[in-house]
Fold these 4 entries.
Entry 1:
Amino acid sequence: MGSFQIDLSGQVAVVTGAAREIGRAIALALARSGAAVCAVDVNPDRLDETIHLIEGEGRRALGWTGDVSNRFQVAALIEATRDAFDGLHIVVNATTADKRAALLALDEYDWRRALEISLTGAFFCTQLAARVMADEGGGAIVNVLTPVGPLLTASEAAPLATSQAGLLGLTRQAARELLGHGVRVNAVCAGTSAETPGTHQVSPDDIAAAALFLCSPAARVITGQMLVVDGGSTLL
């Protein structure tokens, strides 16, 4: 991420979807900036890789294997994070379920499951974490979106498009309601640029840099916003 530097020493962060490329890059960026990180995912093997990378750089990390669409598991992971690191200041919701099927053939279970994971999971993490943050003087929440939904449509992507549009709505509404509690809520729209002249291919580190900025004191007056990181592809 070049010379981009943020100091998050003493901060505690939760990152969901941390076994996937973007979630892992965000967890690493937060840890490298000094935050203690609870990395969350349903895939224990790949989550172990994330923890190994963070601890390999001498940073503090906790792995939590669980399903963010389960309210009780979210409550447990937040308490485990507070017990391990004595606080909670940052949450990044980077879990996405992409169930692809034509609208006319889409299975009800796949529809519901995609919304439960991508949208309801973010709601649980936001609500339960924000209660802690409000009591402890504030914090920052960042939701990681795909362009499908807020900006674009895609083939056979009704669950993804709907969940991501809903997640943007949740971002803005949560930002409004939590403003008086010192909790900022923003979104990063993570694009993957097409191979088109004039655009730049977006990497997970690019998304992580944007999320890191929004989590940091440098963004202390920014809330309710969506930062699009797509190399310019949505301009075409």
Entry 2:
Amino acid sequence: MKIAITAASGRLGTEIVKATAALLSKEDVIGLARTPDKAKDIGIEIRPGDYNDKSTLENSLQSVGTLLLI
């Protein structure tokens, strides 16, 4: 089961991503960010996560079983 966490490039989102990745396998945690390049150094898969781009967001949520909205 993969979990996606929004706001992965923000302060709170980054800390939640890191804590979740420490509890689960890093392969099971996906970060969503409006600007994925800002979150590239977190150490997990980062996908585009702009709420205003429905098509891209739907693609980014493929294979995700749980979504944590920050």
Entry 3:
Amino acid sequence: MSLRTKIFALTYDRQMGKAEKLGMRAFRERLLAGAAGDVIEIGAGTGLNLPCYGPDVRSLTMTEPSPPMLRRLEGKVREQRPSATVLRAPAEDLPFNDHSFDVAVSTLVLCGVDDQPRALRELRRVLRPGGQLVFIEHLRSDDPDWARLQDRMNWLNRLVVCCDCNRPTLDSIQQAGFTVTQVEHTALPNAPKFVRPTVVGSATAPAAAPSPGERSATAAER
């Protein structure tokens, strides 16, 4: 565990404070207003989504791979939603059976996972057929000039906030077999220009279970 990781966890809420006030909290509230049933949130961080889950959520499972973040998350869960389950797990290797959840939540996570396609395949696997993935993610701009700026500045973004600012995340969601049902292109509040392109949306998992070939490929990768 690096000193950088510890400092990032310790200062994360402070770093996000102004962005939350300028619109990020409103994004979270709108995204999670309809969450219901059995819900999994990946990369739950310090638990900034916790206040946004409503009474229709039957069970809430939150995963986080970073031990410093996990400790802060556990403290907030004890205070705000003690019925929630918290586990240390990366998004690429979720310790749950197939078709365990109705809704999966990812907010500013798919930019930082080690293997984005694999993480999305795992989310598809643990969602029930027709289940919903809801997300807030910053991503690569459709504007070529802006995208080139993101490529030039990505090293700085990785250094400061431990993620990539230039991933084609919306395309990756579709390539993983999800059907995007709603998407709003917006800007990440209080962020540098090269980090601003953001989507808030939802996608639906296939109504049918993966084919045997798909299940074998996923199992081989885990």
Entry 4:
Amino acid sequence: MNRDLIHIIEQMSKERGIPKESILGTLEAALLSAVRKKHGIDAEINISIDSTSGEISMSAVKTIVKKVKNPMEEISAKEAKAIDSTKAVGDSIESPIAIENFGRIAAQTAKQVLFQRVREAEKEAIFEEYKDKGGEIVNGVVIRREKGAYYIALGRAEAMLPVKSTLPTETLKRGETVRSYIEEVKVTPRGPVILLSRTHANFVGELFKMEIPEIYEGMVVIKDIVREAGERTKLTVSSNNSMVDPVGACVGMKGTRVQSIVRELRGERIDIIPWTEDPRVLIAKALSPAVVESLGINEDEKSAMVVVNDQQLSIAIGKRGQNVRLAMKLTGWDIDIISESEYNKMRKGEIETQLDELTEASESGEEDQASEDEQQGQ
């Protein structure tokens, strides 16, 4: 029976990732709780379990007396002599407790406390395993959906993926394998919570790190990334190696690398932009896929006026203003976009205004000159 106990503890340790010593300590505490329930709260009790043989030894520390009044805390001199002949009245002695004497209630208490402590130890082990994994991507299996969230099995841990943190176009099914970003690992009154996301901007960044060796190795760096999940992502990349084209490395041969990420994101569009310190070039590239005809910037106000071909205007602005909105987030500049025809009208209006001003100034000058000549003739 004792060997069976050790076997069970070893299996539990292996399956739940809890150290064997921790389970033994938990079992000892559970047995202590059961013994106290049977023999009295005030009794001093010592319990130990041999980690090899599984032998359980329990004893209550009692005081040797001539006449026992409280059997929970006292022992007669005759009984004490049978345990240790060197002990005398007034001394303390450890009196063995037979496991068989637990009783059904005490045994049930030990079982309940053991399961409770093991669950706590398991939660602690899970937290220790995942507490430093925030910002990483994990693969898991959908277990169920309830209360606005999917519950994902990550090995022996269970994580939560809120529905609002999934892509707008996807509905996950039970048993489906899903890749997610660990957004946060936190401790709550109910235990550790692993919070997942598929909409976080860094999810895309980590996917690029997994798929693009140059990014993983540090030759290509993602400078910044902005995203409207399910619709479009824009990211700027730079190279630490003059021989490596950062955009080409991310796109891959015939687009194979970036397409694997697009598939993971259910068709989300991705614009990969070469990073530069020149704000004019950066703004123009950030408005991709639109082609910019010309632009002007105000460095003090960090604003830009961008001119595009009439056919490119809707592309530059994007659906519901998404493209220009993401471009502004990516560059940190306020961007106004106008069509070429609108710009030409503005320019024509400015020229006409300038001509009117020149004409008025010329006519005013002629009038002044005529008045001056008239005064001289008189």
